Model the fold of this input.
Amino acid sequence: MERCSILALLSAAVLIMSCLGVEGWSSYNTEVFQVGGKVMCQDCSKDWNQWAHGAVPIQGSKVAVTCMDARARVVYHTSDLADAEGEFDLSVTKNVDGIEIDPEHCTVRLVSSGSATCNLMTDFGGGKSGVSLHRPTQVYPGVIKYTVGPFYFTTPQCDLPDNGPQ
Done:
């Protein structure tokens, strides 16, 4: 009987701690949160294995974060260029002119490609339509980071023709 009580008590403690941990990140004293990810080129002219697993990073691709207020007005916008590994890292200020930025009202999307030959946006990973931020992927004292993507561009020959009404 005593063993069951101890297990029940431990289970309750773990449940309480996990609930506090999930929402506790929002109370961390940070002035900014980070948004990171990767931009890749996926070439459909390659064989399936190369297409599925052979994406290459695109340096110089532009990615933007747009944050809205409760009335769906833009209150913050910033962008970054991907480095040689295709990685981007944006810092978003949490307080702009007295308005508190809620990460869940922010969207990350592709803006432009750094490649002249691989420059058509795709929605693999949500890069074309945009990705909303929900739960951070890294939470440490003073650091809150969201990771999105990877986002993909493709080559013009991979673009599907528009067979709609003309």
